[in-house]
Amino acid sequence: MSELNIIADGLGFPEGPVALSDGSVVVVELPHARITRIAPDGTKTVVAEPGGGPNGLAVGPDGKLYCANNGGSMTWADHGGLMAPGPHDPSRYSGGRIERIDLDTGEVEVVYDSCDGRPLRSPNDIVFDDHGGFWFTDLGITFERTQDRTGLFYGKADGSSITEAVFPLDCPNGIGLSPDGKRLYAAETFTGRLISWELSGPGTPVLIPGLAGHGGTVLRGLGGQREMHGLDSLAVDGEGWVCVGTLMAGGITAVDPTGETVEFYPTGDPLTTNICFGGPDLRTAFVTLSGTGRLASMPWPRPGLALAHSR
């Protein structure tokens, strides 16, 4: 197992970690519909309670948190001490949205809840670029016998513009940008595929015609004939490796920019969902062990990537 240091436990399915310059880490707690700040000594402070299902977080150009809120699109169940998402309950769903949250006051504003007249379904992960815009995934909602097809969206932080830039994808989850900002990565949860797109400008992917329809290139597919690896949220490190929370296998999978080399860092939690980088020289990886409700840290073999607008 990797050199894990448990920073905090007793969290409700934590995701969306954001490492701040004071050494604290902000996470969401999905079943509790709240956002929590965790100090280096493990002390927890509630930042905001936006309701719904706060999922992914990123700091915007105004220093505020931007939250991909799935609207409470899933329920939660305890499986022998392991918390896991359950089936959709329409009575608990308040609609997907992107929110702006003041870290100091906890004030919550809705920035987007639809695109081109279609409501956002289940926004999941979010990443900012250097141009004042952000990419986010919409996981969609899974019903008993049907499942949404969704895609990747690009929005301006000031609320002036949102576009659906890539469609269709199957349960797109994690999203990230290459160190030079010229390539976009996304992970499909159940297919176990990392897909990439070249960007010709802010919010503009170069779409390659093909049968898949999404116009991207598969960087890597994980799992073999007898393995099932689900992919969750991701971060890109300073050398361009795509580092993705890997479900079932329980750890972080890192794929080099060519897609040829793969590393795996086990955590012991089959619902390891997210990673971000912080600490001196960004050499510390903060990882959400969501099934067991813990935030952990571990040394990373390469420097992390300084995100746009880091606070």
UniProtKB/TrEMBL annotation:
<dbReference type="InterPro" id="IPR011042">
    <property type="entry name" value="6-blade_b-propeller_TolB-like"/>
</dbReference>
<feature type="domain" description="SMP-30/Gluconolactonase/LRE-like region">
    <location>
        <begin position="13"/>
        <end position="289"/>
    </location>
</feature>
<dbReference type="Pfam" id="PF08450">
    <property type="entry name" value="SGL"/>
</dbReference>
<protein>
    <submittedName>
        <fullName>SMP-30/gluconolactonase/LRE family protein</fullName>
    </submittedName>
</protein>
<dbReference type="InterPro" id="IPR013658">
    <property type="entry name" value="SGL"/>
</dbReference>
<dbReference type="InterPro" id="IPR005511">
    <property type="entry name" value="SMP-30"/>
</dbReference>
<dbReference type="InterPro" id="IPR051262">
    <property type="entry name" value="SMP-30/CGR1_Lactonase"/>
</dbReference>
